[in-house]
Amino acid sequence: MRTLVPCWRAAFLLVAGARVFGAGEAPEPVARQIARLEQRVATRPSDFIAQTMLGELRVREVQENGDLRGYANAEDAFQKALAEFPQHSGALAGLASVRLALHRFAEAEDLARKILQHDGRNLGAQLLLFDAQLGTGKIKDAAESLQRLPPIPATFLRQAELAWLHGQNDEAVKLSLRAADDADARGDSAANRATYRVRAGEFLFRTGKFERAREQYASARKEWPESFAAAEHTAELEAADGKFDQAIAIYEKLI
């Protein structure tokens, strides 16, 4: 039995800015990319860029198979990168993302601040800081961090999260859909576009708008068929809608 990944935190990882997958790319299977990078670092263990990319790919693998144990391998790669270059922002951000996914929010916040000490404008670190602050219940601090972020899909999604926490459910739905639509318009990577659609679907699901949520999840699965979160949220929706056979079929594939 696999240990399944916490959904929304895992979804946020790509939004925070993994750099392996760019807009418009159709990458080869993650397992193949991981194997190639593992060969590279086996012969060049001091290559901190390759180690960082390997860590990012291992995070991506968790997002596709839902197996939380894979984060240990991702952390190992990030730690090896940092052993060679302790201030490498990519490795620090990757490690912070793993901490976030495992709900070790205080550690994630420390890592985000470490990046910002050397690069105060680092967008990925600013997003990670907000996520970590929100995770530890520092709502006021998170709101202040959000004010410093530019008007991009990742910001709109976090605005939606704050709106939801303040009981502004319709505004949360509106902002999450804006994030998804803007990501499409910007030509974000398929994984990012799927992530935004899953989050928009989740807000719609929470407000009882099942059909609209189903549309968002279907769009996410079309964009990124390997997305664990999109499939898992679809199963949750089908069960809530009384379609138990469909839900069971999806869950059986996931586990």
List its salient traits.
255 residues; 75% helix; 0% strand; mainly alpha; globular; disordered N terminus
Describe what is shown at a glance.
With 255 residues, this protein is an all-alpha fold. The protein is built from 14 helices and no strands.
Map the helices and strands.
Blueprint (H helix, E strand, L loop, with lengths): L6 H9 L14 H14 L4 H18 L4 H15 L4 H13 L3 H14 L4 H13 L3 H9 L5 H13 L3 H18 L3 H17 L3 H14 L4 H13 L3 H11 L1
Structure explained in plain terms:
By secondary structure, the protein is an all-alpha fold. Helix content is 75%, strand content 0%. The protein is built from 14 helices and no strands. α1 packs across α3, α5 runs parallel beside α7 and α13 (228-240) runs antiparallel to α14 (244-254). The N and C termini lie close together (7 Å).
**CA radius of gyration:** 18 Å
pLDDT averaged residue by residue: 90
Q: What class would the helix/strand composition place it in? A: mainly alpha
Beta strands, count: 0
Low-confidence residue ranges: 1-24
Number of helices: 14
Query: Largest sheet, if any?
Result: none
